[in-house]
Amino acid sequence: MSRYLPSLEVRFAATIADLKHRMAALELRTARVQSGRTLYPRYGTVDPGYTGGDPLVLVDGDAVATGPYPYLRPYAPVAGDRVVLAPAGDSYVVTGAVTDPTATGVPALTGQRGSVVGTFPGGTNSLTVTVTFPAAFPVAPSAAFVSGPLLDLAAPTFSVGNMTTTDFAFVVQRRDGANVSAGARTFYWLAVA
């Protein structure tokens, strides 16, 4: 039996060293979980009686308002605002107001993309093109362009006008004012609302 003892001692020492290493890692990971320490962002409501300075906030799940908490610029607290509090040392900082912290009423972005062919008649440096969306947007979107091979339309400029929920028009032209040769050009667009 004594011939196995050194082998057991080595394995036991290795197991103890491994446990110490794991314990140190666990202590490092849970250091902020200690009582009175902040751990994660939270939602709250600025005190209804707030008139200025760092606000008191009724943090969700608490019975009474706490603070005062500093806030980030350019946000300016308003009584009754729903706010996000981010951990900062042993306290929190108000990062700003939110409209719907649960995201249940925040609509997702919607987007559509496509292409449209515009034909330059020749003898001009600009062309007006109308894009009709495959489906109507709930609100007027914003548009961006990526052009295909535009041949002699080096460094084109795009001017968007008449943006609606169903279509928009844009003007494309040569930046240098020179005329564009006659012919069809394909323009790729992306619209997001």
Residue ranges: pLDDT <50 for 5 or more in a row? none
Proportion in helices: 10-25%
Biggest sheet, spatial arrangement of strands: 2-1-3-4
Report the average pLDDT across residues. Answer: 77
CATH architecture label of the largest domain: Sandwich
Q: Briefly, what CATH class of the largest domain?
A: Mainly Beta
Please name the CATH topology of the largest domain: Immunoglobulin-like
Q: Give the C-alpha Rg.
A: 31 Å
Main sheet summary:
4 strands, antiparallel
Distance between the first and last residues' Cα: 78 Å
Question: Count of DSSP helices?
Answer: 1
Question: Tags for this entry?
Answer:
193 residues, mainly beta, Immunoglobulin-like, 2 domains, three-stranded antiparallel sheet, 1 helix, 13% helix, elongated
How does this structure look, described?
By secondary structure, the chain is mostly beta strands. It folds into two domains: 56 residues; 82 residues, Immunoglobulin-like (Sandwich). The chain is 13% helix and 36% strand. It has one helix and ten strands, in the order αββββββββββ. The strands form three sheets. A four-stranded antiparallel β-sheet has the order 2-1-3-4, with no helix packed on it. A three-stranded antiparallel β-sheet has the order 5-10-7, with no helix packed on it. β8 and β9 form a beta hairpin. The radius of gyration is 31 Å and the shape is elongated. The mean pLDDT is 77.
Secondary structure layout plus pairing:
Blueprint: H1 5-30, E1 42-46, E2 57-59, E3 82-88, E4 91-97, E5 111-120, E6 126-132, E7 142-147, E8 156-161, E9 167-174, E10 183-192
Antiparallel strand pairs: 1-2, 1-3, 3-4, 5-10, 6-9, 7-10, 8-9
